[in-house]
Design goal:
Radius of gyration: 19 Å
Number of helices: 10
Domain HTH deoR-type: 5-60
Organism: Pseudonocardia parietis
InterPro entries: Carb_Metab_HTH_regulators, DeoR-like_C, DeoR_HTH, NagB/RpiA_transferase-like, Tscrpt_reg_HTH_DeoR_CS, WH-like_DNA-bd_sf, WH_DNA-bd_sf
Protein name: DeoR/GlpR family transcriptional regulator of sugar metabolism
Shape: elongated
Helix content: 25-40%
Number of strands: 15
Keywords: DNA-binding, Transcription, Transcription regulation
Structural class: alpha/beta
Distance between the termini: 46 Å
Mean pLDDT: 88
Length: 264
């Protein structure tokens, strides 16, 4: 395409906002210009505070890639969506399964559902998830809850070498991963580098990866990628996701399940 400079920049801003993050090489191919031209455009847009320029590309303006809201703050966001996602995700678990749950408010809601399923072995690095399983009566139904050790983060996760060592010794049938953000360029990401390594160990321990993420996570980019989009076997999200964004995900993830809050 042949566009004037300002038209090019409008296209760049739109792609950054819709994808969360873009690479210089991708923009150059899409616009039919040199990478140097794209870099100059990104310099202009960054000065205008329309994008954040990062190494090799740009990310959307918003939360910094290292900002991590606390568990309490996140637990009151998109409550209906998270409950609907949790209800759908729980249908993937059968009695007697070995399950992994990452930290996060959506996995926390899922834990309340899993507490009602008998004879599970649930491994988690989340204090809140473990407590939800305990108070929900998981042990009374013959389930075993294993909480890794580690260093506590703002999202109530236990991370670091102790948690990673524990997870690397396990073989789980299904892992449910909550994420800070998801985008075409950055995949499933987190703002906490140490949490990334722990979550990666959890992902590697599972035979099947199910990502649970509401629509607001699309376009958000954390500093570190946990997994690429195509590593997820299933993504459970909600109907607030735009059709174009859903199409991107369906092109990468084996199965995308979209739930409608209030119908569970």
């Amino acid at each position: 395409m042949s566009l004037l400079a300002e038209q090019r920049r409008e296209v760049i801003v739109e792609r950054v906002r819709s994808h969360g993050a873009v690479r210089v090489s991708e923009l150059a191919d899409h616009l039919g210009v040199s990478e140097m031209t794209v870099r100059r455009d990104l310099d202009v847009l960054a000065r205008r505070r329309l994008v954040d320029k990062v190494h090799g590309g740009a990310t959307a303006i918003g939360e910094h890639t290292t900002e991590e809201p606390g568990f309490s703050a996140k637990s009151v966001r998109e409550l209906e969506e998270k409950d609907a996602i949790a209800a759908e995700a729980a249908t993937l678990v059968t009695p007697g399964s070995a399950v992994g749950l990452s930290a996060g408010t959506t996995t926390w809601r899922l834990a309340h559902r899993l507490a009602k399923i008998a004879r599970l072995t649930v491994v988690t690095n989340s204090l809140a998830v473990a407590e939800a399983l305990h108070t929900g009566g998981a042990e009374a139904r013959g389930s075993t809850v294993i909480l890794t050790g580690g260093v506590r983060t703002p999202s109530e996760a236990l991370v670091g070498p102790v948690a990673i060592a524990a997870l690397r010794s396990l073989n789980l049938e299904i892992v449910f991963l909550g994420v800070h953000g998801m985008s075409a360029a950055a995949g499933f990401s987190t703002p906490n580098l140490t949490e990334r390594d722990t979550n990666r160990a959890l992902v590697d321990a599972g035979q099947q990866l199910v990502v649970v993420a509401d629509h607001t996570k699309w376009g958000t980019v954390g500093i570190s990628t946990i997994a690429e989009l195509n590593e997820a076997d299933v993504l459970v999200t909600d109907a607030g996701l735009a059709d174009a964004d859903r199409a991107v995900l369906e092109g990468e993830v084996d199965r995308v399940v979209v739930v409608r809050p209030g119908r569970q």
